[in-house]
Design goal:
Elements lengths: L4 E12 L2 E12 L3 E6 L5 H8 L7 E6 L2 E2 L4 H4 L3 E5 L10 H11 L4 H14 L15 H12 L6 E5 L7 H16 L3 E5 L3 H4 L4 E6 L2 E6 L1 H8 L4 H9 L7
Parallel strand pairs: 3-8, 3-9, 6-7, 7-8
Antiparallel strand pairs: 1-2, 1-4, 4-5, 9-10
Helix pairs in contact: 3-4, 5-6, 8-9
Length: about 250
């Protein structure tokens, strides 16, 4: 694994009034790493990702993303990263080509560069025939494939994927992960959240969040050995369920 840090988080705290959403989070992420961020709903994942993406400021702690201080220059982070969410990624009323142009512009690419690189992108995705097709007409699997390609079209140092394969079939999920491997192989760090525990096995390292805290962080194999479990799913249940349930 490349030892160049692209994300540095030390003592991150995020409060909403008296509620502590992120409680003293500390971790690093490295260049070209596939870093899994796991946790049940309400564990604090989304709050942390919003801070890492420059959409929210930490209450306290040190957060550096792509060399940018999230507490003082969050707007600059957005120019250095890619982002894809299962909930919202592409505009359904625009065509494939129009979405590529729109997001390329949002990410700061010049129109001349966007238009010169679009044919190669469409060819690589086998999307040439869909160039003028409205997004709403595409199957979910193809939409997700395009959304990911658009998120890294501007060649960011880091791409954040928030449950990118939710709702797609197992074959499409596997193909999507092949794209993730290819992206990481090109030196782009992939920070991914997922509720599919089998996908956690594909990550170089995983962090497990529970009630706003990090309760585990290591490679999937090392965590399974440490907690004596056969899978990440079994591990997740073992370390996140209330203690009284284990009795």
């Amino acid at each position: 694994m490349n030892e160049q840090k692209v994300i540095e988080v030390n003592g991150l705290v995020k409060k909403f009034g008296s509620f502590v959403a992120n409680d003293n989070l500390t971790f690093d992420v490295y260049k070209g790493e596939i870093f899994g961020f796991l946790g049940a709903n309400g564990a604090g994942k989304t709050t942390a990702i919003r801070i890492l993406c420059g959409l929210s400021r930490p209450t306290s702690g040190r957060v550096i993303v792509a060399g940018i201080d999230a507490a003082h220059r969050p707007e600059e982070i957005k120019k250095r990263i890619g982002y894809m969410s299962q909930r919202f990624s592409l505009y359904e009323d625009l065509t494939v080509s129009e979405n590529i142009e729109l997001y390329g512009g949002i990410y700061g690419m010049r129109m001349k560069e966007i238009r010169s690189r679009t044919p190669e992108l469409l060819s690589r995705l086998s999307f040439t025939a869909y160039a003028d097709t409205l997004i709403r007409s595409l199957p979910l699997g193809l939409r997700q494939k395009l959304a990911f390609a658009v998120a890294v079209f501007h060649e960011p140092g880091i791409v954040f994927l928030d449950e990118p394969t939710s709702g797609v079939d197992p074959v499409t999920r596997r193909r999507f992960w092949e794209m993730i491997y290819e992206t990481a192989g090109n030196g782009i760090t992939v920070f991914v959240t997922t509720h599919y525990m089998d996908e956690a096995e594909y990550c170089d390292r995983v962090t497990i969040m529970n009630e706003g805290r990090i309760v585990a962080l290591d490679t999937p194999a090392a965590l399974r050995r440490k907690y004596g479990t056969a899978s990440v799913e079994e591990l997740f249940v073992k370390i996140t369920r209330p203690k009284q349930e284990t009795k």
